[in-house]
Automatic annotation (TrEMBL):
It catalyses: L-alanine + NAD(+) + H2O = pyruvate + NH4(+) + NADH + H(+). It comes from Prolixibacter bellariivorans. Belongs to the AlaDH/PNT family. This is Alanine dehydrogenase. The keyword Oxidoreductase applies. Substrate binds at residues 15, 75. Residues 4-137 form the Alanine dehydrogenase/pyridine nucleotide transhydrogenase N-terminal domain.
Amino acid sequence: MIIGVPKEIKNNENRVALTPAGAAELVKRGHEVYVQATAGMGSGFTDEEYVSAGAQMLPTIEDVYGKAEMIIKVKEPIEPEYELIREGQLLYTYFHFASSEALTNAMLRNKSVCLAYETVELPDRSLPLLVPMSEVAGRMSAQEGAKYLEKTYGGRGMLLGGVPGVHPAKVLIIGGGIVGTEAAKMAAGLGADVTIMDVSLKRMRYLDDIMPANVKTMMSNEFNIRQMVQDHDLIIGAVLIPGAKAPNLITRDMLKTMKPGTVLVDVAIDQGGCIETTHPTTHDEPTFVIDDVIHYSVANMPGAVPRTSTLALTNATLPHAIDLAEKGWKQACREDNSLKKGLNVVDGKVVYKGVAEAFGLTYYDVDSIL
């Protein structure tokens, strides 16, 4: 198969979808790998390393899309890429379709095959290609939240862990999945007073067992959220409904009950956000303020730590990339039900229910196109 790796062009996205080691694995199996020049530089991989691994370099993004049968990316295509994608071309990347009607319509129009990292799902309902970036984003959410609590950035001027004789900051995490767990580990490690809210008693029992004494659990519901946001300094939204738009659990009217300088970090922003007042921001302009509350909602948080993120992501995505290249996407998905669940849009049809429901589109059973 002919595989293309374009340079990411989303704002401050420094990750790359394939490392030189990954390119070598594909090349030794007889596949052709084309990498856009300087695509790996942001993650610390030189063009020379790719060439040594057997990949071929192409000068422009147009060249890569024009050559490849399968495109491997990190982030969803953005508008300048829409017209470069060909009918039947396989795109293997994060899409988060339910948060963008424009992206969904563009991929329906070009009749490409869109296999989304975030909806590849194992029988135990875990999301193996989302986990690595959820781990990074969860840890970063506490790190970024701690920074924006500093007065320099408009926060309350609080040190997350406090000092002897001074109470630590109070951190509220809504969602006890991978993001919430990693956020809690980081915040607790810095000495904060942490509460994780979730709707699953089973999950909260697990978290109660594994977390240190400065982490507590609480049932997530509207009444409890309204009470808790009033006296917490950092609030992290870590809610995920696979493939679907995140629910708004913190509403606009709740902001007025928060203390001035409270920091909100919405890690669910890729799926539309779980805080009503957030919208996607960039690493160039990561925050905005509403009602004296700081909102941080960067849509590609792991892009700020690209070396760590690229290595973590490609550890998970490469085995499936090899399967897709070896067998073709149809055969690979027929043989691997987990990979089949990654198909979202195929040949102008929506084959993932959460995406169809988000925009009122016709849903087609994925087995009908395999």
